[in-house]
Amino acid sequence: KVMELRQYGRTIWKWLWLIVVGAALAGGVTWFVSSRSTPIYRASSQLLIQQAANPSGLQWTEVLTSERLAANYARLLTTRPVLNQVAANLRLPEISSGIIVDPVRETQIIVLHVEDPNPALATAVANDLPAVFISQNEKQQQQRINSTLEVYQTQIDGVQADIELAQDQLQVLQALEENGEELTLEQASQRARLEASLAQYRSSLAELLRNRDDVKRAEANRGDTITVVEPAIEPSQPVRPRVLVNTLIAAALGALLLTAIAFLIETFFNLFIDNAFLLIGSI
Q1: Residue 25 three-state SS
Q2: Exposed e or buried b for every residue in 158-173, given b needs 16+ CB within 10 A?
Q3: What are phi and psi of 227, to 5 degrees?
Q4: In what order do the strands lie in the sheet with 109-116?
Q5: Residue 161 to residue 84: CA distance in whole angstroms
Q6: DSSP state of 181
Q7: Which residues contact 170 (CB under 8 A, 6 or more apart)?
Q8: Could you tell me if 208 and 159 are in contact, meaning their C-beta atoms sit under 8 angstroms apart?
Q9: How far is residue 55 from each of residues 159, 212, 221, 255, measured CA to CA in Å?
Q10: What are phi and psi of 225, to 5 degrees?
């Protein structure tokens, strides 16, 4: 093994000039290309997705639900209505920046990365996009709640109208009795039906009012909220190209490649010499 190591060392020393030239050439080309590439800056913001607190205490199932909400919102962040509104706010024809939405595993946090050659623009998009998304999400939630309340209110108005009509008809029959008139069988049957219907209407009205109040409580205590826990700040250094890192990696790979080529040359050269001596010896 010592002899092998010495042989390896002699080979490397013999071809060191080639290895150095290869490393310098690979590193130089990479540095030239990287230094002339357009620098890309990244601005990042963080959003927290959470549900309303459970009075009985936070349950693990609620954490899982919040994680699923975070995953859903991560996909919704880059929908066309959101991007179009951000472009309009920033007075851009369209959003051409690279957007990366990364939900953090086992948390309710979404990390939003925006990459652009202009660091100020990347920061503006990273801050405006969550604001637009939160605003649109709240508006959609409010529209759904208002629509539900309108449906309940329409039903409540209808039931109240039925109650008033039944009460008016009962009052007519009661007025007859108060005047000393005896109700006919048909009128008595009608009164019984009206009283039964009135009780049913009042029960339905009470249920509708409870449901409407539940919706109003849900409006005051919504199931999920979105907040920006860390706004983006303007980056001072580009994330790529990493000129120094790329140059060092290319130089190292160039050195390894030329080292392998040197060993191949030595191996084939030694085999050629050995075969030549064998051929001469056989002659």
Answers
A1: helix
A2: ebeebbeebeebbeeb
A3: -135, 145
A4: 98-103, 109-116, 41-51, 224-230
A5: 46
A6: P
A7: 191, 194, 195, 198
A8: yes
A9: 34, 22, 12, 65
A10: -130, 155
As a whole number of Å, the CA-based R_g of the chain is 40
| Residue that the structure tokens 């490393």 belong to | 23
Burial profile 74-84: b = 16 or more Cβ within 10 angstroms, e = fewer: beebeeeebbe
Residue 201's closest CA among 171, 165, 233, 169? 165
Which residues, listed in sequence order, are joined to residue 45 by a DSSP beta bridge? 112
Beta bridge partners, 47, equal 110, 228
Distance, first Cα to last Cα, the chain: 34
Residue 50, C-beta contacts closer than 8 angstroms, at least 6 positions apart: 66, 108, 224, 225, 227
| Spatial distance between the Cα atoms of 155 and 133, rounded to a whole number of angstroms | 33
- pTM greater than 0.85 (yes/no): no
For 78-105, the pLDDT digits (tens) are: 899 999 999 999 999 999 899 999 888 8
Q: How confident is the prediction for the chain on average, in pLDDT?
A: 84
